UniProtKB/TrEMBL annotation:
One of its GO terms (biological process) is exocytosis. InterPro entries: Sec10-like, Sec10_HB, Sec10_N. Residues 90-205 form the Exocyst complex component Sec10 N-terminal domain. Residues 47-70 are annotated as: Disordered. The keyword Nucleotidyltransferase does not apply. Residues 211-556 form the Exocyst complex component Sec10-like alpha-helical bundle domain. One of its GO terms (cellular component) is exocyst. Keywords: Coiled coil, Exocytosis, Transport. This is Exocyst complex component Sec10. Belongs to the SEC10 family.
Length: 579
């Protein structure tokens, strides 16, 4: 009864399912747990109470929630009359009620969904009508914007034309205003010569020299252009031209005076190493003939061009003591040191030029050209004195070969200087072409001097061999004198060592040909002339060798003939003796 009352009470428990339970993160396990948690705990309590009432001790709990004894399980099973799971009916009823409520909830949801569909369809129709009306309105706005854009474009073009006209008018007004100002200043110069002291303060104020220089150049251009356009047929043209000529003359005098003042200020700033003042003066002087006078003046006042001690030290460094003849190796070392000093000096000047002049490349071009044409040329003139081909110095004093070796050394080192100066910077100057022009006179006559040198060396070697031959064949007495005369009259024998020396001379000459000949045709012609000299030098050696070989063969043939004749005679004598 007790259990039945519990079952009936459980079956009458209210079952509540709310739509909100299915919203959000829905979990079926959680829903099921909430439904059965109220029934299952009571069942577990009843099981525990029934086990205690039968006095069963040491029970084990089964996996389904029931208990059993460890010793008297059989008796307990026979005496147990109640069902194992009495809440089954209550749970079945609970599940049935839950299913009914779920069906009801689904119907409610389906009804709401149907209503929402109808409402959404109604609202969709309204929105479609609204969108259609909006599209028509947008099309109208686009058409309005297109008309407005066209109007704006038209107005903008008109405004641009008006702006161009206004700008042109403003430019004309500015030009006219400047022309009026220039005419006023020109009237000041349109006076008799010597009246420059009566000019306006603009042309005498040292703080406004830049403005004065600009206006003076404009006045010169204006006056000279007007003079060139003046026509003799114009009434009063002669008087106006005469007046402008006076103005141009006065302007030229003023510009010369102003330029000299600026150059003096530039020199003073240069001595004090005031780069800012030098830069300011150079910028103003650039308005006078593009600043050519300032550039040339700066370069001409460099110590390496005006200091006599610098030139003397150059000669001493390269040539050494003038009383003795310098060797090519000594000159090469001296040129290397000197050209390095020149390159360092030009590099220092380049730093100043970059900081001072508005057109530094033009100044560098003038500086490098002055270095090559003055400092290098003066040194080369003393170093490369052309010898006389008809009456050269003896070989013992260097001969023509000394000049050729000096020429090769100077040419090679000067080319290295040109490359170094190009690396430092020389503007638009063709430094390589200028370097070639320094040696053009020497290179034009080089083949003649090379051939003359080879002939001189060859003749000197022949004289040396002839002297050695006379010393070897110099006996005493009459017989010795006759024998020495015969040796002197015989052709000179050239040794292999002498021919080897000939080859060494020509090899050195070919090296110089390669150095001085930039064009393949010139190189071929120079090498051909050197090779011709070599053939001439070794021709006697080859001829003498062939003649000696011929004489040896002739002598061998005569000895063989004598041997053959002697053998035949001895055979005849032997045969006669036997008879």
């Amino acid at each position: 009864m007790k259990e039945r009352s519990k079952s009936s009470s459980v079956s009458n428990l209210p079952l509540i399912l709310n739509i909100d339970d299915f919203k959000g993160d829905f979990s079926f396990d959680a829903l099921f747990g909430n439904l059965v948690n109220e029934l299952l705990p009571s069942f577990q309590e009843d099981s525990a109470d029934s086990a205690e009432g039968h006095g069963i001790g040491g029970t084990d709990v089964l996996p389904n929630g029931h208990t059993r004894t460890s010793s008297d399980a059989t008796k307990f099973a026979q005496g147990l009359s109640a069902p194992l799971f009495p809440e089954v009916d209550a749970l079945l009823l609970l599940f049935k009620n839950s299913c009914k409520e779920l069906v009801d909830l689904r119907k409610q949801i389906d009804g709401k969904l149907s209503n929402l569909k109808k409402e959404v369809s109604t609202q969709d129709d309204k929105h479609r009508k609204t969108l259609t009306e909006l599209e028509k309105g947008v099309d109208g706005l686009f058409n309005s914007f297109a008309r407005l854009d066209s109007r704006i474009s038209s107005v903008g073009q008109t405004a641009a034309k008006v702006g161009d006209h206004l700008q042109s008018a403003d430019a004309q007004r500015e030009t006219a205003s400047q022309a009026i100002e220039l005419i006023k200043y020109l009237m000041e110069f349109n006076r008799n010569p010597g009246s420059l002291m009566e000019l306006s303060p603009l042309f005498s104020d040292d703080s406004r020299v830049a403005e004065a220089a600009s206006i003076a150049q404009k006045l010169r251009s204006f006056a000279e252009e007007d003079i060139s356009k003046a026509m003799p047929s114009v009434v009063g043209g002669a008087t106006a031209s005469r007046g402008l000529e006076v103005a141009v003359a006065n302007l030229q005098e003023y510009c010369n005076e102003l330029e000299n003042r600026l150059l003096a200020r530039f020199d003073a700033a240069s001595q004090r190493r005031e780069l800012s003042t030098m830069s300011e003066c150079a910028k103003i002087l650039s308005q006078f003939n593009r600043g050519t006078s300032a550039m040339q003046h700066y370069v001409a006042t460099r110590p390496m061009f005006i200091d006599v001690e610098v030139m003397n030290s150059d000669n001493k460094l390269v040539l050494g003591d003038q009383s003795s003849q310098a060797s090519p190796n000594y000159v090469a070392r001296g040129l290397s040191k000197l050209y390095k000093e020149i390159t360092d000096t030009v590099r220092k000047e380049a730093a100043t030029i970059m900081a001072v002049f508005p057109s530094p490349n033009d100044v560098m071009s003038i500086l490098v050209q002055r270095v090559l044409e003055q400092r290098v040329t003066s040194l080369l003139d003393k170093l490369l004195e052309k010898p006389s081909i008809a009456h050269p110095r003896p070989v013992g004093e260097g001969g023509i070969l000394w000049y050729l070796r000096m020429l090769a050394v100077a040419y090679e080192k000067t080319q290295e200087l040109a490359r170094d100066l190009r690396a430092v910077g020389c503007g638009d100057l063709d430094v390589e072409g200028l370097t070639e022009s320094l040696f053009s006179a020497h290179k034009d006559e080089y083949p003649e001097y090379e051939q003359a040198s080879l002939r001189q060396l060859y003749q000197a070697k022949l004289e040396e061999l002839r002297a050695e031959s006379q010393k070897v064949s110099e006996p005493s007495g009459t017989i010795g004198r006759s024998k020495g005369a015969s040796v002197a009259s015989s052709p000179l024998e050239i040794s292999v060592a002498a021919v080897t020396e000939f080859l060494r001379w020509n090899e050195e000459a070919i090296t110089r040909c390669t150095l001085f000949s930039s064009l393949p045709a010139t190189l071929a012609a120079n090498v051909r002339s050197v090779f011709t000299c070599l053939l001439h030098q070794v021709s006697q050696y080859i001829t003498d060798g062939l003649e000696r070989a011929r004489d040896s063969l002739t002598e061998a043939a005569s000895l063989r003939e004598r041997f053959v004749i002697g053998s035949s005679v001895s055979r005849r004598v032997t045969s006669q003796v036997h008879i």
